[in-house]
Amino acid sequence: AADQPADTAEPLPEIRNLVVIGGGVMGAEIAQLAAAKDFHVTVQEIDAAAADAARKRIEGLVKQWAKYQHADEQMLTKIRQQLHVTCDDTALSKADLVIEAVVERESVKRQVFRDVERLIGDDTLLVSNTSSLRVQRMAEVTSHPDRVAGLHFFNPVSRMELVEVVHTHDTDPRVLQRLLQFARSLGKTPVVTADSPGFIVNRVLFPYLGEAVQMTIEGYDAEFIDRPMRSFGMPMGPLELLDHVGIDIAAHVADSLSGVLPDAQAVAERLKEMSEAGELGKKSGQGFYLYKDGKMDRPV
Ligand code: NAI
């Protein structure tokens, strides 16, 4: 509770313009949701091919959203007008908030933070969606670490209610308040957490997911583990969830927890082996399960 900043009477600068760096699985979902909630969103990708892929991904999400919300053509047009994908960095100068959602590699993220900081205004917030890296490592390459924080969305963004707002030692409490406000305006429930391995959710969730991975190492079939967990009341089995998150991302999370949780290292190694073999889960068509046209087919 001490971590939860008190609401202040002083008005906070409004967030209207958003730049999302990286339009992959998470960036595309965050961008689509923010545009649907009336923010102006620019997705910045690394090159023209990646920008095209991001456009397709976002268009798919917009259509899915429209179906779910029973949206009419007018609403669809509005969302499309609110959302742009580009590979140039011109939108940064007008951004109120920049959300970094590039690949989970510290060196890449640190470079993004260095590059972005040169182009944003004084009041712009700079956050990372990282699930396993220390936000502090990105904050320390900037000259204003007080405006850097983590904003950890969960996958799929449109359905997962929680957002972890991660503060470092340097994050300004007003920055946290603006982020809490932003998360609420997306219809999410934010929680403030320290910049520690796994934050809150992955630290608690991972022993459960990791134990399922351990059981596969012992030779149990994926469905043998997942089916009873679904019947127990989980919306997805643990191995199905790992496939959904991405085995590569999960390997990074396991790795980051290896100093905190027993057995995380063995799980990280198994997940790394799978990633190196191209078994990235749903996005590559194979993980603990095989996928056909993006739908789960059968256990490997
Ligand atoms: P992804 O691999 O689907 O997307 C990454 C995107 O970043 C790609 O489209 C790539 O072209 C782009 N990119 C790479 N370098 C770039 C640069 N310098 N400038 C602009 N774009 C660049 O990865 P995903 O799964 O979306 O993960 C992104 C971040 O979100 C990671 O930090 C990950 O840990 C985090 N995250 C992922 C979750 C998941 O379930 N996949 C859940 C929560 C957080």
How is this structure best described in words?
It comes from Roseimaritima ulvae. This is enoyl-CoA hydratase. In the central section; belongs to the 3-hydroxyacyl-CoA dehydrogenase family. In the N-terminal section; belongs to the enoyl-CoA hydratase/isomerase family. Residues 198-291 form the 3-hydroxyacyl-CoA dehydrogenase C-terminal domain. Residues 18-195 form the 3-hydroxyacyl-CoA dehydrogenase NAD binding domain. With 300 residues, this protein is of the alpha/beta class. It folds into two domains: 17-194, Rossmann fold (3-Layer(aba) Sandwich), CATH 3.40.50.720; 201-299, Orthogonal Bundle (N-(1-d-carboxylethyl)-l-norvaline Dehydrogenase, domain 2). Helix content is 44%, strand content 16%. It has eleven helices and ten strands. The chain has helices at residues 25-36, 48-69, 73-82, 106-117, 135-139, 173-185, 201-217, 222-232, 238-245, 247-256, 264-276, and strands spanning 17-21, 40-44, 83-86, 97-100, 125-128, 148-152, 162-167, 189-194, 289-292, 295-299. The strands form two sheets. It has an eight-stranded mixed β-sheet with strand order 3-2-1-4-5-6-7-8, with helices on both faces. Strands 9-10 form a two-stranded antiparallel sheet. β4 (97-100), α4 (106-117) and β5 form a beta-alpha-beta unit. α1 (25-36) packs across α2. It is globular, with a radius of gyration of 19 Å. Bound molecules: 1,4-dihydronicotinamide adenine dinucleotide. The site of 1,4-dihydronicotinamide adenine dinucleotide (NAI) has 28 residues, from α1, α2 and α4.
